[in-house]
Amino acid sequence: MFSRFFNRAANAEERRIRAWCRKTFGVTPRNLPLYRQALRHSSANTEEAPSLPNNERLEFLGDAVLDAVIGELLFNMYPDQGEGFLTRMRSMLVSRHQLNILARKVEIERVVESNLGRQQETSVPGNALEAVIGALFLDKGFEKTRKAVVALLNQHFDLRSIEQEDRDSKSRLLEWGQKKRRKVEFHITEESGRGGRGKVYVCEVKVEGEVRGTGRGMSKKKAEQDAAQAAFRSMRHREGPQREGVRPEGPRRDRPRETREGHRSGERPEQRPRRDGRDRASRPQRPKGPEQGPSHASSDSSDE
After folding, report:
1. Is the pTM of this model over 0.70?
2. Of the listed 63, 109, 163, 168, which one is catalytic?
């Protein structure tokens, strides 16, 4: 009773945070200042209050707690899957892109303290959500935090659909590399977006050290997917012409192909003395001059 009295919301902001926690996690906060810190971005510090604690330390803690919760969830949910699959699934669930989506679904922007503009808030929602999970862990312990996070994930995400996403281009390319015993690598770099619109990630896929595909995206995942798809297209394109190149080789196509390619490449008539000799012999201008005259004349005219 006394703890409830001393932790009663002191103002409208704390009452809004308490109501949001009840709606989002199904728990009533005991240490409201801790949750308020979790929702305070570093940009919220002003000259009047420069020493207010921000959410960076709680974000660090929440990231570790979230990894443990999701790791245990996937371990129990997929008893027959290996470490590679579990790692990919966890990476997709805790990626910055997914956390931002989840944070916006629970309308975390209603309780976040931040002085950043909308165009700058690329990771603020997801970071704040991680910080709240860290605060929840300190306030309620691991078991209640685990139940709250699992319920939140099941409410807003379909894990089976995310499992299907694991069969994406990147995963299929990595599995192809394992089967073919070829080294597949993804290398990501950053570049400035056009017009100063945040960062753009550039990903290169290398197969045995050779670049096979390049992709770009506002997130690392999008860049990797685009690069993997480009690699698949590139490899299919390379295999296609080789197979098609075998078919035209035959007695009917050899002669006209050589003739067309010869004219395109600018081969001189002297390279085919027999055929060209017959053609030129039929021309009325040929008999003029001595026998060696036409060759000198043709070279002189070409020089002009």
Report:
1. no
2. 63
